[in-house]
């Protein structure tokens, strides 16, 4: 039924080498007459598979020989010297992700409408993207080559979907046999090689909660500090997830989970000195419970997994209301590796649509509509009401129902173009903002395939995309 449901866990077949997409003017790369579409096949005689290999093989080298395939088929050898760590001024193609070989009960692919665009059915699971962008992998189909690569190239930290350390439960959740689900040897090997791991548990009521969850958190905490943190996030089911083995997350389930995990958190703070096991913001919001304090989250090790985002935002907003400037935020441990910005070949939609005109920072009185997901809307509304009262602005927060995926999907990140457009007649004021996270990071389109330009054309006022930092910056005076 699903396009990639039985895709074998192999790296996509492709020609060796890494393709250059941009050469900075005046750079060493330009001096060497390297051009976009050139493929660097070898560095100092060693084969290059992708951007990470290129970076690894050039790091710290001052004498370099590139074997380059030109678009016309010609192969050239380029020998040159450079100062240590001198930037070559090259940008590269994106890494093509490897596919997983699991059949997870809760896989997001099973929650898509059948006519969703094909890329939504891609089950990527790639240790390179885990290192670069913090994507989770299950390690259940990792090859020996990949294991060696993590260790040799120090691709640390890695983000691992553990879900349960009880083997039967893990195998059941992943839809694979126990021998494949068992990653205990692999984890030990990575930890012994000093590779740091961040773990994730997608919490499924009646499957990996209760005693199984407690065992999982204790087993992982036993490896602290090499296992740095664990995020526990609730399973989100769309209206298309009809698997009867899955139970929806209820407010009562969330309250029970908070009570259970709070006890463990206290224990970990005492024994390890850190909270270690963090519950996703959604669990607190669904439970109607207070979001923990900043100290609870430390340096926000799992903020991009929706853990601590609300606390980080509300604290920044408090500062904004108090001082007029919220930008001095607690530096979060943003998990995207610094090198992640390098192998990109397209500008982000956010960058392409910079909010520069109608909502310039410093404007005291703003009149517009902020669209966000149903989960975050009440939190944002509370803060914006205070901001309006203080500045005389007339900002309206509107919760956008997710009609595309339905079910209990209420996060901003899964809103589609058509969900946002459905709000167009309700907009008040001179502009509208949408969450940046609704737009694909490397292409200006939404999850349903609508382009950003198409969406903009359907609104009668300018549309800007902002993330929470961008919003704080916009409102800072
Ligand atoms: S949830 Fe992730 S690991 Fe599981 S089947 Fe889907 S893509 Fe693969």
Describe the overall structure:
The protein has 477 residues and is of the alpha/beta class. It has helices at 28-31, 51-58, 127-133, 144-152, 167-174, 178-181, 184-192, 210-221, 251-271, 281-287, 294-297, 309-323, 349-352, 377-391, 417-421, 452-458, 468-475, and strands at residues 18-23, 39-43, 46-47, 63-69, 75-81, 90-92, 158-161, 197-203, 227-234, 277-279, 367-373, 394-400, 432-435, 463-466. It has 17 helices and 14 strands. Strand 11 (367-373), helix 14 and strand 12 (394-400) form a beta-alpha-beta unit. The protein is globular. The chain starts with 17 loop residues before the first strand and ends with a helix. 39% of the residues are buried. Residues 1-13 and 341-362 have low confidence and may be disordered. Iron/sulfur cluster (SF4) binds at residues 100, 102-104, 107, 109, 123, 125, 138. The site of iron/sulfur cluster has 9 residues, from loops.
């Amino acid at each position: 039924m699903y396009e990639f449901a039985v895709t074998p866990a192999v790296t996509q077949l492709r020609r060796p080498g890494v393709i250059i997409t941009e050469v900075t003017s005046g750079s060493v790369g330009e001096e060497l007459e390297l051009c976009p579409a050139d493929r660097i096949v070898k560095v100092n005689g060693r084969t290059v598979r992708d951007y990470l290999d290129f970076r690894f093989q050039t790091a710290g080298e001052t004498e370099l020989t590139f074997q380059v395939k030109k678009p016309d088929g010609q192969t050239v050898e380029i020998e040159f010297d450079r100062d240590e760590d001198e930037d070559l001024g090259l940008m590269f193609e994106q890494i093509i992700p490897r596919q997983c070989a699991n059949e997870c009960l809760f896989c997001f692919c099973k929650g898509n409408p059948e006519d969703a665009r094909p890329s939504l059915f891609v089950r990527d699971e790639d240790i390179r993207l885990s290192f670069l962008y913090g994507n989770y992998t299950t390690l259940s189909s990792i090859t020996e080559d990949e294991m060696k690569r993590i260790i040799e190239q120090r691709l640390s930290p890695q983000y691992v979907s553990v879900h349960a350390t009880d083997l039967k439960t893990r195998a059941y959740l992943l839809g694979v046999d126990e021998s494949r689900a068992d990653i205990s040897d692999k984890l030990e090997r990575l930890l012994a090689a000093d590779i740091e791991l961040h773990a994730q548990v997608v919490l499924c009521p009646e499957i990996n909660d209760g005693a199984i969850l407690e065992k999982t958190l204790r087993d992982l905490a036993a490896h602290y500090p090499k296992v740095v943190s664990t995020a526990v996030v609730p399973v989100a089911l769309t209206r298309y997830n009809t698997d009867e083995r899955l139970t929806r997350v209820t407010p009562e389930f969330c309250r029970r989970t908070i009570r259970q995990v709070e006890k463990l958190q206290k224990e970990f703070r005492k024994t390890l000195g850190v909270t270690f096991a963090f519950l996703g913001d959604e669990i607190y919001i669904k439970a109607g419970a207070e979001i923990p304090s900043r100290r609870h989250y430390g340096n926000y090790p799992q903020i991009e997994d929706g853990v601590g985002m609300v606390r980080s935002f509300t604290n920044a907003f408090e500062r904004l209301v108090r001082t007029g400037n919220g930008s001095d935020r607690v530096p979060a441990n943003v998990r995207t590796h610094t090198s992640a910005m390098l192998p990109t070949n397209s500008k982000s939609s956010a960058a392409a649509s910079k909010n520069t005109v109608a909502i310039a920072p410093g404007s005291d009185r703003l009149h517009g509509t902020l669209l966000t997901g149903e989960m975050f809307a009440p939190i944002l509304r509370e803060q914006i009401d205070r901001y309006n009262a203080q500045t005389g602005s007339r900002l309206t927060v509107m919760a956008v129902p997710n009609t595309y995926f339905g079910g209990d999907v209420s996060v901003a990140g899964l809103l589609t173009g058509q969900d946002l457009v459905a709000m167009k007649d309700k907009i008040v004021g001179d502009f509208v903002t949408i969450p940046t996270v609704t737009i694909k990071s490397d292409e200006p389109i939404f999850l349903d395939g609508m382009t950003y330009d198409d969406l903009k054309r359907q609104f009668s006022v300018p549309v800007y995309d902002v993330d929470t930092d961008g919003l704080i910056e916009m409102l800072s005076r």
